[in-house]
Amino acid sequence: MKWYADRPVRLTRQLIADLLAVGWVALWIWVATTAHDWVLGLRAPGDGLVNAGGDIRDVFTNAASKARGVPLVGDDLSGALGNGTKAGETLIGVGNTQIGVVQDTAFWLAVALIVIPVLFLLITWFPLRLRYARKAGNTVKLRDKPDLLALRALTSLSPRELAKFPTDPAVGWRTGDTDVIEELAGRQLAAMGVRA
After folding, report:
1. Of 11, 44, 134, 146, whose CB has the highest number of CB atoms within 10 Å?
2. Ramachandran category for residue 122: left, alpha or beta (phi over 0 → left; psi -120 to 50 → alpha)
3. pTM to 2 decimals?
């Protein structure tokens, strides 16, 4: 396979197309990371819930342990304050759930923002490049066989290109006219961007 043409004009177009493809991927990676960071900024309320829940839990835990020392009602008071500890744990759980949802959303959004454009590129640009590489590679293998290159030119060149010949190129190829065969082979090589 031959990925790039030998002729400068076609080589330049291929290089520009490949650089645009790389730029396309880089752009979407940048968009994805920016969106990921922005969505992660939405986890601040969850962090606040976790911090508030931890503070509430600690306050009620300390209060419950000190309440145990109160005569007669210490155990009942400690049990009642223990419910505040559970409320703090609930807030921590809710905050962690919200943080998890935001992190999952940020991750999958970033994945989608990268995968979809890259798949689009692989479906549109890559088959064209692969087709060219195969055709150019096969053409290079036929450089020393002008008859086969001429035949390929007869089947692949446009009718407008073939009409530019002073005589019918198919007749010239069938009769073995070396000038026509060389011209057809040269045009096939030129069409693929390959040097003679």
Report:
1. 146
2. alpha
3. 0.71
